[in-house]
């Protein structure tokens, strides 16, 4: 499985961005996909995830009500709609795919990772 994230950029506080993650390979066998972010000098944190079988979504408390994760019908791409962005959302955002349910899902248990896309939110 190969993942390609895109859509990052420089925006102002309150703006919106939509990140995309294009997946290729055995995506139809994946358990779910997620988005993570890593701020400068910080650990990588879970942001959101979506389960392939039924589309159930999961969010970190810090983004609930502002971010929305979705997928296309073919499960080839996953999106992260980010609204009302705040300076603390500034980070490199990564998409990931988990091929089976593992302990810690959805915050852990991913097998494949894409390269990051930078999101910078100015105040």
Q: Can you tell me about this structure?
A:
The strands form two sheets. Strands 2, 4, 5, 6, 9, 10 and 11 form a seven-stranded mixed sheet that branches. A four-stranded antiparallel sheet has the order 1-3-8-7, with no helix packed on it. It has no helices and eleven strands. It has strands at residues 2-6, 9-12, 17-24, 32-38, 44-51, 57-59, 67-71, 77-82, 91-98, 112-113, 117-122. With 123 residues, it is an all-beta fold. The model has no long low-confidence stretch (mean pLDDT 94). 0% of the residues lie in helices and 50% in strands.
Brief write-up:
It is built from no helices and eleven strands.
* Poorly predicted residue ranges: none
| Mean residue pLDDT | 94
The backbone outline, from C-alpha atoms, is globular
**How many whole angstroms does the radius of gyration measure?**
13 Å
Q: How do the helices and strands line up, and which of them pair or pack?
A:
Elements: E1 2-6, E2 9-12, E3 17-24, E4 32-38, E5 44-51, E6 57-59, E7 67-71, E8 77-82, E9 91-98, E10 112-113, E11 117-122
Parallel strand pairs: 2-11
Antiparallel strand pairs: 1-3, 3-8, 4-5, 4-9, 5-6, 7-8, 9-10, 9-11
